[in-house]
Amino acid sequence: MKRETLIWTVVLVAAGLFLAYRSATNGVGHVYVDQTDIGWRTASPENVVAGTAAFSLSRTVGTWVAALFTLCILSFLYRDNPFYKFAEAVVVGVSAAYWMVVAFWTTLIPNLLGKLWPAWIQSWAMPGLSSVREPLWYLYLVPLGLGVMLLWRLAPKGAWISRWPLAFTIGAFAGLRMVSFIQADFLSQIRNSILPLIVFAENGAFDFWTSLRHVLIVGSILASLVYFFFSIEHKGVIGKVSKVGIWVLMITFGAAFGYTVMGRIALLAIRLEFLFHDWLGLT
Amino acid sequence: MKRTVPLLITAIVGFIFVVSFFTPAAEFLGELAAVWFDILAGIAFILGGGNLLKVHLKKISDRQAGWGYSGVTILAFVATLVVGLGKFGSPPAPKQEFYGETFATLPLEALPESLVARVPGQIPEKENGEPLPPSVRRQIVQRDGQIEFRGWMLSNQKHDLEEYKDRRAWRKTVEALYEAAQPPEPLRGKVAYYTDHRALSFKGAMTDSDRQALLALSDEPVWRQAVEQLYEQSRKVTRVRVSWLPESFAVPESLRDRLRYDAQTKELVLQGPLSADQRDALKKQFPDAEPLSAKQRTTFRKKLESLGRPLNDEQAKILDRLLSQPLPESVGERNKLLGLALLEHGGLTKEQCDSLFAPYRQEVAWRAKVLELFHAAHQVKYPWSGEYRAQGSPFWWLYEYAFKPLTATMFAMLAFYVASAAFRAFRAKNVEAILLLGTAFIILLGRTFAGVLLTDWLPDSLAGLKIDNLTVYIMQVFNTAGNRAIMIGIALGIASTSLKVLLGVDRSYLGSGGE
Q1: With contacts defined as CB-CB under 8 Å, which chain B residues touch A138?
Q2: Between residues 187 and 246 of chain B, which touch chain A (CB distance below 8 Å)?
Q3: Smallest CA–CA separation between A138 and chain B, in Å?
Q4: Is it the case that residue B148 has pLDDT exceeding 90?
Q5: Cβ-based neighbour number of residue B131 at 10 Å
Q6: Is residue B94's pLDDT more than 60?
Q7: Domain count, chain A
Q8: Tens digit of pLDDT for each residue in A111-141?
Q9: Residue B116 belongs to what H/E stretch?
Q10: C-alpha–C-alpha distance, residues A108 and A130, integer Å
Q11: More confident residue, A282 or B81
Q12: Which whole-number Å values give the CA distances from B513 to A151, A237, A279, B9, B117, in the listed order?
C-alpha cells in the first residue's frame, strides 16, 4: 500500500470511528420538530430540553445527506474524484428541475394559464383567483404561441422557429436595459458625482476634509473616465491623467477582490458551521 | 421569413419598451410586454430541462465516458421535478380552506329562483367602460328596471359593488340589494354561496331544522341533492383517541352541542368541522398560573429537591421569583420557564426535569390531539393550493438538503481558488500591482477582528490610519469613484449595444445558418 493511500485510509477510518462514537453518544445530526397549526417546524432548543419536540427522521437523514454532499464537493480540493462527480451530477439535475418548478408555479400558472383559463386554474391550483377572464385575456395567447415555438428547439427539425421567441426576449431585454441603464447607471451616477469642491460647514467655516474628499472623488472619476476614452492617444497630459485613472481603477479592483474573498470566506464559514454545529454538534 | 421576422420582432418589442417608458399612455404596453417576457423566461427553464434530458439521455444511450453520472443527473432531475410539480406533502393553503365550513358543489346556474333578489334601480355605467367587479359580474343583471342578484351576497361582494361607483344613490341601492340577497333568518351566518368556488357552504353541523329550511327554498333535484350532501357531510362524526383529559377540561361554548368525551372508549367525539377559532378555544384548557404563597413555594421546593439534588442559592432565588409573581401563562409554561432557568444556573437531575416539565408536556400533547381532531374533521377543499416549497414537503427537503448545501459549497470553494490564484499572480512589481495588492490587503484586514486589533493602539490624532477607518475611506472615495467610472462605461456600452440590436446592425443572436 502506498504511503498516501495509507494516510488517507487512516484518516477516513478515524473520522468514521469518531462519527460512530458521536452518533452513539450525542446523536449526530439529529433534528427535532415542533407541531404547529401550519405543520411541523424545526423545534426551539427550549422545547428539545423540555422533551416536547419530536425526533424527525426525514430531517435527520436530510442533515446527513447535506453534510455528505458538502464533503463530496469539498473533496475536489484534493483532486477530481467520483464523490465530487456524483455531487456535481446531483446539483445539475436538482437545480435544473428546481428552477423549472419555480417557473411553473410562480410564472406559468398565475401569469399564463391563470389568464387564459382562470376558471380551470382557480378550481385546483389558485382558489383565490377570480374565475372571470380579464377583458384582454386573448393577448396571452401570444406568449403561449411564442413559448411553444421556443420549445420547438428540442425538435430535430425546424430549430429556426425558436428564433421568434428568442427575438422577443432579446428585443425586450435590449429595450428595457437601454432605458434603465441610461437612467440608473449613466444619468444618476453623473448626477451623484456633481459635488461641491469647496465645502463650508454649517457655522460658515471651511470644511477641509469634506472638500478634499469631494475633490478626490470628482478627480478620480474624471481620471478614470479619461483612461476609458480611447479616441485620443494617451500621451502627454492625457497620458498622465489616464495613468492616475489606472491607479484609481487598481484600488477599485483591489477593494472588489478583498470583498469577493471575504464573501467566499463567509460562505465557507457557514458551511463549516453547518458541519461542526448542525451536523456534528461540536460547538 | 427566417431572419426578417425575428429582426422585426426584436425592433418592435424593444422600441415598445423604450416608448412606453416616455409615454404614460403606452405604459400598459410595456407592462404587458414585461409579463410576456417573464412567461417566456419561465418557458426557457422548461427548455433548459428538456435540453438537459436530451443531452444526458444521449450520453447514456451512446455509453459515453461518465454515462453513469448522467444517470444520476436524470434521476435527480426527474425526482425533483415530480415532487415539485406534484406538490407532494404540501398542505393546502390555510386561507383558502374555509375551516369550519362544509362545501357541496353547486353551479351558479343551478341556484333556485327563490335565491334571486330584486331591487328597483339601474346599474351605473362607468365613463371608461369598466365592467362590474369580477366577484359579482356573473350574479348581477339588469332586467325590467330592476337589478337582479342571484345567490346570497357576501360582504366582500357588497364592498366591491360599493367601490364600483362612488355615488350615494348607488350605495343605497347596493345596501338594499345586500339586505334582499341574504339567506332566510334561521340560516343567516350559517349558509353561504361562493360563486368562484361553485359551492354551497354550511358553517358547523347542519341541524334538521336548518335542513328543512334549506330544502324549503326549492324543489329542484340539483338543489335538494346539494342540500342533502351538505347535511350528510356537515354532520360527519370524527373520533380521536385521547387517553386523558386536562383537569380543567370544559367544552367551549361554541361547540357545546357538537363535542363530547366518550369515557368508555376514551375518545373525543366531534360532529361536523372545527373552525380555527373553535380549535384555539378547545386548545385553551389550561388556566393561567397563580402566584404561590411563601408556604406553597417552600413545599414546591422541598418536593423538587426530594427528587434529586438540592438547589443552589441562585436557583433558589430564581424559583422564588418565578413562583411568586403572576405570569400570563399556564402552569406548564411557567414550569418550563422555571426548569430552563434552573438548568442554566446549576443543573437538575432527570427526575427533577421530568417533574418540572410534565405539565408542559401534557399541554403540548393536548394541543397535538386538538390539531389531530381539527384536521380529521376538516373537508379538504383544494389539496393542490398549498405552497410548492412548504416546509416538510419532499421538494423543500431536496431544496434544503441537496440544492442549498451543494450550491453554497461550490461557491464557498471559490475562496480557496481565489486565494490560490492571488498567491500565484500577485507580485508587487510596479505601482499598479502594489496599489491593487495593498488595497486588497487593507480591505481584507479591515473586515476581520485581527485587522481592527492590529491598529487599535494608534492614538486619536492618528485615528485616520486605523485599518477600519482606512477601509471606510477607501470604499467611500476611491472605490466609489472607480465604480462610478466603470458603471458609466457599462451604461454607455449597453445603450449602444442595445441600439445596435434593435436597429438590426448586430444580428449575431440569429446565428449564421438557415437552421
Answers
A1: none
A2: 195-198
A3: 12
A4: yes
A5: 12
A6: yes
A7: 1
A8: 999 999 999 999 999 999 988 898 889 999 9
A9: strand B116-120
A10: 17
A11: B81
A12: 19, 49, 54, 19, 67
Tens digit of each residue's pLDDT (9 = 90 or more) over B18-54? 888 888 877 788 788 889 989 999 999 999 999 999 9
Which has the minimum average pLDDT: A60-69, A257-266, B475-484?
Answer: A257-266
B361-385 burial by CB neighbour count: b if 16+ within 10 A, else e? bbbbebbebbbbbbeebbbebbeeb
Q: Is B250 on the interface with A (CB under 8 A)?
A: no
Helix axes B350-377, B331-344, angle to 10 degrees: 140
Q: Are strands A54-55 and A39-42 parallel, antiparallel or unpaired?
A: unpaired
What's the rounded Cα separation, in Å, for the pair A132 and B137? 8
Q: Cell triple for residue A246?
A: 489606472
Is residue B402 within 8 Å of A66, Cβ to Cβ? yes
Place of cell 443572436: B509
Mean pLDDT (chain B) is 91
A238 within a domain of the structure (yes/no): yes
| Among the partner residues A37, A96, A172, nearest to B33 by beta-carbon distance | A172
First and final CA of chain A: distance in angstroms? 36
A171 located within any domain? no
Q: State the sign of the Cα–Cα–Cα–Cα dihedral B193, B197, B200, B206.
A: negative
Assign B474 to helix, strand or coil: helix
Mean pLDDT of A85-90: 97
For an interface test with A, which of B488, B492, B502 has the most A Cβ atoms less than 10 Å from its Cβ? B488
Q: Does B459 touch chain A (CB under 8 A)?
A: no
- Residue B386 sits at φ, ψ, to 5 deg, of -70, 175
Shortest distance, CA A218 to any CA of chain B (angstroms) = 7
Whole-number Å distance between alpha carbons of A32 and A28: 12
Chain A hits for B75, CB-CB cut-off 8 Å, are 93
Domain interval for residue A244: 195-271
How many Cβ atoms sit within 10 Å of the Cβ of residue A208? Answer: 11
How confident is the model over A142-154, as a mean pLDDT?
A: 93
> Could you read off the pLDDT of B365-400 as tens digits, one per residue?
999 999 999 999 999 999 999 999 999 999 999 999
- Inter-chain touch A253–B501, beta carbons under 8 Å: no
Q: For residue B233, which amino acid is it?
A: Q
- Cα angle value A257/A263/A268 (rounded, 5°): 125
